[in-house]
Write a structure and sequence with these properties.
Layout (H helix, E strand, L loop, with lengths): L5 H24 L4 H20 L7 H22 L1 H4 L5 H6 L4 H24 L10 H30 L20 E5 L5 E4 L1 H6 L18 H17 L3 E7 L10 E9 L5 E7 L1 H50 L8 H31 L8 E4 H18 L3 E5 L7 E4 L1 H17 L6 E9 L2 E7 L7 H6 L21 H11 L3 E6 L5 E8 L9
Parallel strand pairs: 7-9
Antiparallel strand pairs: 1-2, 1-5, 3-4, 4-5, 6-8, 9-10, 10-12, 11-12
Helix pairs in contact: 1-2, 1-7, 2-3, 2-7, 3-6, 10-11, 11-15, 12-13, 13-15
């Protein structure tokens, strides 16, 4: 709905009141009765005064309808009081007021004026209406009414023409006769060859606070913020030189105390073949606020994760000293260094030693994983034969596999060395974790297979077991810290869920990967790919 500004309506109304005032003054100078003059002035001034009272609400349809009815009612009253001829011309005041709105209102005003005129003509033919004004006041009333109406018609035509020529806030269609701007999401502005704004949709006017603004507006004066004006001007110049659309982001300052971030608007300037330009703007303030909230949440989460990692590392380090003492003393008791132990005590010493060893392995995994997560685990690449690491790792796991009654088979490429540039300690730790998991969760009498090959400049190590296996859902989560598959919980073996997570992290530090292939009832195959690191390109 078009907003009819007070300044546009004020001119014609002041002309109406000025004509009335001049006529009353002329009548007073000619000696017309002052009482009659006052009545004439008041009656003729009423529609203009009522119109002024409605100016604050004239952007609403009901107020525009009331305004037209006021002038129609005045015209009917004037004809009933002073006669249809010549005061029937006062009905021209209705379309004169309508001309200050958009075209549809002018049509409505003409229809209303015709209906009022016909109804008055019919009423005068049926009813004898007494004249409330006496001569010469009646003559003055007739002449002032006619003169004021003609003046209002001329002023309305001028105001309507000015509105169509300069108003940049009109909802009416542009010169092309279309209303395409209102169908576009975001703000849309059309500028002429001279840079003057030809039209804008409501969302665009709201973005730049143009509601209630009059006068010529251009691309260089669209925003009140200097940086935004410069940015728009530069973007428009670049689009004109390139002959294609150019995007830009505008940063507008905060609008008040409650606005902490200001506003962000994405703008696209598109040059037209006519020499003008289209400006499409989309307010991204809400999106930027959400992104800022996410960035803050990410910062807090990262800081919390680092604090947690440092806490685990500190606690694990402090636990190692007393744990080494426990393992050492239990080892002395197992070896009967100071004499034999009673039956139950020997069994307890063995349990203490096993539990201490398990805790030491767990603390080692926690420390290593904490270093990886904190970015403090540094690889020390060196050249070595991976076959030696595989054989030595199998020897280290052999006591555990024998105790679990699980056979370990090794498949290496004959006498060919598996030479690779990598961190030897990390590769050994990867293999030991995979072997430990495979033995730990394999049933008695089963077999675990270890295989190593060089393929396309990378070491491929796989450990396969014939255990319970994992479902697709479990497989997707295994490798996360502290996560175990449900099948692992059906065994008596203890596990923290850190082994595969550490294997994955150490492999990725080398630029490699961990691949898991498993299904319920057919075991699991874990494959680690370690690229051959160049000595001059060590990861930090």
């Amino acid at each position: 709905m078009e907003r009819l500004s007070l300044s546009r309506l004020l001119g014609p109304l002041l002309i109406w009141l000025g004509v009335i005032g001049a006529g009353v003054l002329a009548g007073a100078m000619r000696g017309v009765d002052l009482g009659a003059l006052g009545m004439v002035g008041v009656i003729l001034s009423i529609p203009a005064l009522l119109s002024l009272l409605l100016t604050g609400a004239l952007h609403k349809r009901w107020a525009q309808a009331v305004l037209l009815l006021i002038w129609t009612g005045f015209s009917v009253f004037a004809c009933l009081v002073g006669g249809l001829f010549p005061l029937g011309l006062t009905f021209l005041s209705v379309p004169a007021i309508g001309m200050m709105f958009y075209r549809g209102r002018v049509v409505e005003a003409l229809v209303l004026a015709v209906i009022g005129f016909v109804a008055t003509w019919f009423a005068l033919g049926q009813v004898d209406v007494p004249k409330v004004l006496q001569d010469p006041a009646m003559t003055l009333f007739q002449w002032l009414g006619l003169l004021a109406t003609l003046a209002l018609v001329v002023a309305g035509m001028i105001a309507g023409s000015e509105r169509r020529r300069t108003s940049v806030l009109s909802d009416a269609a542009p010169a092309t006769g279309t209303r395409w701007r209102d169908g576009v999401s975001g703000g849309l502005f059309e500028f002429g060859r001279d840079g003057a704004l030809l039209g804008a949709n409501p969302e665009g006017r709201a973005q730049f606070g143009l509601d209630g603004v009059r006068g010529n507006v251009g691309l260089d004066t669209l925003s009140d913020h200097e940086a935004a004006r410069i940015r728009l001007a530069e973007t428009a110049d670049l689009a004109r030189r390139r002959g294609e659309p150019v995007d830009a982001r505008l940063s507008l300052p905060p609008e008040g105390p409650g606005d902490s971030y200001g506003r962000w608007i994405d703008a696209r300037v598109t040059p037209l073949s006519s020499g003008g330009m289209l400006l499409h703007t989309v307010d991204r303030t809400d999106e930027e606020a959400r992104l800022e909230a996410l960035r803050r949440s990410e910062t807090v989460a990262t800081r919390d994760a680092q604090d947690k990692t440092l806490f685990f590392a500190g606690v694990s380090h402090e636990l190692r000293t007393p744990l080494n003492a426990i393992i050492g003393f239990s080892d002395m008791m197992q070896s009967r260094l100071f004499g034999p132990l009673p039956g139950k005590y020997a069994e307890y010493a063995e349990l203490i030693h096993e539990s201490g060893q398990y805790m030491q392995d767990l603390i080692g995994d926690v420390l290593d994983l904490s270093k990886v997560e904190a970015g403090r685990y540094t690889l020390n690449p060196s050249g070595f034969d991976a076959s030696d690491v595989v054989r030595s790792s199998v020897k280290m796991i052999r006591p555990s596999s024998d105790a679990a009654e699980v056979a370990v088979d090794v498949d290496l490429p004959g006498d060919d060395a598996l030479l690779i540039q990598a961190d030897r300690k990390a590769v050994r730790q990867i293999l030991l974790n995979l072997l430990s998991n495979a033995v730990k969760f394999s049933p008695k009498g089963s077999r675990v297979s270890v295989r190593a090959r060089m393929d396309d400049g990378a070491l491929h190590m796989s450990v396969a077991d014939t255990g319970a296996g994992m479902s697709a859902t479990e497989l997707a989560r295994v490798g996360e810290p502290w996560v175990q598959a449900a099948s692992s919980q059906m065994t008596d073996a203890r596990g923290s869920g850190l082994g595969l997570s550490l294997v994955r992290s150490l492999a990725e530090l080398h630029g490699g990967r961990l691949e898991l292939d498993s299904a319920l009832g057919r075991g699991t195959t874990a494959t680690v790919v370690i690229p051959d690191l160049d000595r001059d390109e060590r990861p930090s």
